[in-house]
Automatic annotation (TrEMBL), chain A:
Residues 218-246 have a biased composition (Basic and acidic residues). The keyword Lyase does not apply. Keywords: Repeat, TPR repeat. GO terms for cellular component: cytosol; peroxisomal membrane. The lineage of its organism: Eukaryota, Fungi, Dikarya, Ascomycota, Pezizomycotina. It comes from the Eukaryota. One of its GO terms (molecular function) is peroxisome matrix targeting signal-1 binding. One of its GO terms (biological process) is protein import into peroxisome matrix, docking. The keyword Disulfide bond does not apply. Coiled coil: none annotated. Residues 338-347, 377-387 have a biased composition (Low complexity). This is Peroxin 20. Residues 390-405 have a biased composition (Polar residues). Residues 207-246, 317-347, 377-419, 460-487 are annotated as: Disordered.
From TrEMBL, chain B:
It is found in: Cytoplasm, Cytosol; Peroxisome matrix. This is Peroxin-7. SMART domains: WD40. GO terms for cellular component: cargo receptor complex; cytosol; peroxisomal matrix; peroxisomal membrane. It comes from Baudoinia panamericana (strain UAMH 10762) (Angels' share fungus).
Amino acid sequence: MSEALCGPSNPLQQFKQQTSLDRTLQQDRLLSHRSPAYGFRSPDPNAGVLDAEFEAFQAGVPLSDLPQLQSFHRQQPDFTGPAQTPSWAADFQRMHIAPPPMQQQHLQQAAPSTAGWAQGFRNHIDQYAPRAQQSAPVSPLAFQQRARFGYSGFQNDLAQTTPFQATQQSKGKEPVYEQFDEAAFERAFDLARDDVELNFGAESVMMGSSQSEVLEADDTRLVRDETSRPDLGRDQLPDGLGHYHNDVPYALEQQDHSEKTEQPSPYQDDDALAATAQELLEKVEHNTTDKFRNSQFLGLMRKLRDREMRVEGDKMVETNVSTGSSLPKPPLTHSPHDSGYVSGSSSPLSLDSYHFDTHICKIPGCDVDHTFDHWESPAASTASPESVLKGTSTLTPLFDNTEQRPSPLALPTASEAAVDTRPPDYGIPAHEQDADPGRIHPADGQAVVDLLNDRAADIGTWPDDTLSDSAPHSPLEDGRPPFYGDLRALHGERSVNSDLSDMLYGHDGSLEAPVRWVKEPVYGSSKE
Amino acid sequence: MLEYRTAGFNPYAVKYSPFFDSRLAVSAGANFGLVGNGRLFVLNLTSNGIVCERYYETQDCLFDTAWSEQHENQILTAGGDGSIKLFDVGVQGEFPVAGWQEHGREVFCVHWGLVDKSRFLSSSWDGTVKIWMPERKESVMTLPVHSCVYSAEFSPHHPDILTAVSRDSHLRVYDLRTKASAQNHMTLAVPIHAAPKVQQPSMGGLGKTGSLGPTECLTHDWNKYRDSVLATAGVDGVIRTFDLRQPSGPVNLLPGHEYAVRKVSWSPHLSDVLLSASYDMSCRVWTDGSNVDQGGNGVGLGREMGRMDRHTEFAMGVDWCLFGAEGWCASCAWDERVLVWDVREFMRAG
């Protein structure tokens, strides 16, 4: 619920939650054949079926060879239609992981949908271009929320409801759920099945490797896997599935994409980010003060809007518009091999539980695990331990615009008073200046230096009267300042010190009193 | 005015140490916190200006930080990856001494209990406030808010009372002594956008109700002297003060900031003075008009007392110095600068 309220829900984040759930119990049950009714007041009649079926599936035994299970099949309403093929996909369908009513319910839960939400989705399909949102007032923070998570595609626009609408929905009447279009669902299933049959050879390898995923997959996950086949275009989806698909964790798509070499998603991401940047800029465009015109952050926003910059993984990179290719190249799935980012020392990452597909780079000779490179969302960055810190963005200043603007170190007043307004003939002309190089002798003042060095050597043994003269407000009881005290007195007051001591040791008067700049030596003002 | 440059990192929060008068912590993120690493700076005020004593790198941006009230060397950070980390300045090395990962989204606020100093809290975009003890690996308690919680704080007057403000424009008060019922310890939910009891003449463009309707509330702070008074501020740029004895709406409105207010902080020295940092790149000092000496008689109209315009990007954090002079404070902004300054320098007559 809060996900929907808090701006764009991040599908990757949700997916991460799924994977990071403690599934030990579940797996325990699968492996050890414990009684399914154990611990539950109302035992699930289907629970026992699964285990045997799964075992059979895992062993490669066709399901029809398990005669004792057939009776269960007939009891169940068959929602997937008759299975025509002996493919593994059909096996999946015949496995009664959940009866259809539950399926339907789960769909509704998975999508925090209302009728308005569905409408929004259709609208979005119609006008795919990024659009301004008419939701809650845009704050820079809201922008940031979207920016941090906005580049995962168009889902965000839909998730973006104002909190007040959402509250009304939850408090008011029951949300109107879309009627589940069973026919459309089956159509999509058929499509998916055909698709699966075509790619059977290749896919089965994949499934083998991610079998453990399938183990823990609940009913919907199976459907998701099939409906998110890349070949099944998003726009071909019937409505009932379309909603559904929209809520599929993006990561599942990532799973598919990681096998291909390019992803369509970054373009959508850029669109979303550019749209939000645009929105923010519109918000401040009436403000023409110097500060806002020179703002580095707003400059970055402009660049994001104009697509001169985009987010790539954990970095912000300039898109090279100047190279002439106005259309950006297909983004690399891999980071450059010499990027130095994570790739070099990926051992902690490959051990990471989040990276279930251990993708190995297909470039010959490169056996580096690039898994991390595929996780372009910040969610991925949560996965990695502290040890990957070094060398990401901190080493290279990402948009160091220090050349374009005055150094922030300089005080505003100081940077303004830099114009030389003196007349050209100001001062003594160079040829008239007395140049007497012999006048300065290297040995000049050496005596003073010697004397000072001499004094510094036995500075602790100065006569008492000298000390008390130089440090008139000695803070110590015996009138003898500490060792550092006399040095400070000799060097005279320091402006920084006066502020600081004022802060640390107090000043006179209340907050309403005017500032009285301290002119006495350091410890003088506060001890009265 | 002292200055420190957090090169390459855009600060999000600055906090004075409650133990040392010269120690500051600044949490920051690269790329304005959009992507990239975070860094925690531990700064020291020395006679040579501000010097970085330690810094710690983190995987994701650090949105907030809080000094431990128990241990003078320990600092909490709130991470963009949902993690909370505890660093110890006294321990060598670049890693935290403890860490907690329970929040599902960005942790946006951490705050150490001021009365019961064995606990701290965190609030997150995942819509929860969690209460922790540094010795435990899991959170002690989770308070669902069901809306992005931008800021949560323990009361400085009572160990079991805490407040949270969230995206849905409500100030929620939790009393941990109550039963864990359906209310989840929530005892009060004050609508921040409600019309104030007393109409104020200087409402400007805010209309009769003094409100443009509900907007996200980004920050709040407990008054350190008056135990039922809080201030909130948010996207509409208006700072509101509330008295929990009168929970129907705000007591006082302080309009002036042009854009959203990111942080408010009551003075530790004066009961009527507060400081704010805003996206309009300014930090401002306010009085809520309650100063008895100035005829406020406990109520009255607030006003802006001064503003500091030195920051050149969005001002993100302010904090008062607890020690010494009562006007000293620190502010940080996305211009990669931390400024330590005296508000009296920027005070206007009137």
